[in-house]
């Protein structure tokens, strides 16, 4: 498993788990739940924030938030 912050632009991944409960509750409210597919759309010039597509909409996440999301790449 990798962290979402490590995934390259254009890659699709499945959310597997979260590192802590605090970030889980916040992200769950935005549609990021285990089993949901994410596509990394863009990264800011300095890498923070990143833009993802999840549950049919775009969402921006700070790298420190993406660092707490464990994902598995879809081949």
Describe this protein with a few key phrases.
6 strands, 2 helices, SH3 type barrels, single chain, 16% helix
Overall CATH architecture: Roll
Please tell me what the overall shape is.
globular
Q: What is the succession of H and E elements? A: EEHEEEHE
Number of helices: 2
Using the coordinates shown, work out and report the CATH topology: SH3 type barrels
How much β-strand is present in the residues? 35-45%
Low-confidence stretches at least 5 residues in length (pLDDT < 50)?
none
The mean pLDDT is 90
GO molecular function: transition metal ion binding
Domain Ferrous iron transporter FeoA-like: 2-73
InterPro entries: Fe-transptr_FeoA-like (IPR007167), FeoA (IPR052713), FeoA_core_dom (IPR038157), Transcriptional_repressor_C (IPR008988)
Keywords: Iron
Provide structural commentary:
It contains two helices and six strands, in the order E-E-H-E-E-E-H-E. It has a six-stranded antiparallel beta sheet with strand order 1-6-2-3-4-5. 16% of the residues lie in helices and 41% in strands. The protein has helices at 21-28, 63-66, and strands at residues 2-3, 12-18, 37-43, 50-54, 57-61, 69-73. It is globular, with a radius of gyration of 11 Å. It starts with a strand and ends with a strand.
Element layout with pairings:
Blueprint lengths: L1 E2 L8 E7 L2 H8 L8 E7 L6 E5 L2 E5 L1 H4 L2 E5 L2
Antiparallel strand pairs: 1-6, 2-3, 2-6, 3-4, 4-5
């Amino acid at each position: 498993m990798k962290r979402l912050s490590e995934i390259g632009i254009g890659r699709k991944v499945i959310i597997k788990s979260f590192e802590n409960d605090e970030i889980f509750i916040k992200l769950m409210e935005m549609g990021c739940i285990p089993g949901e597919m994410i596509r990394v759309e863009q990264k800011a010039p300095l890498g923070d924030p990143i833009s993802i597509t999840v549950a049919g909409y775009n969402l921006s996440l700070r790298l420190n938030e993406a660092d707490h999301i464990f994902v598995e790449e879809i081949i």
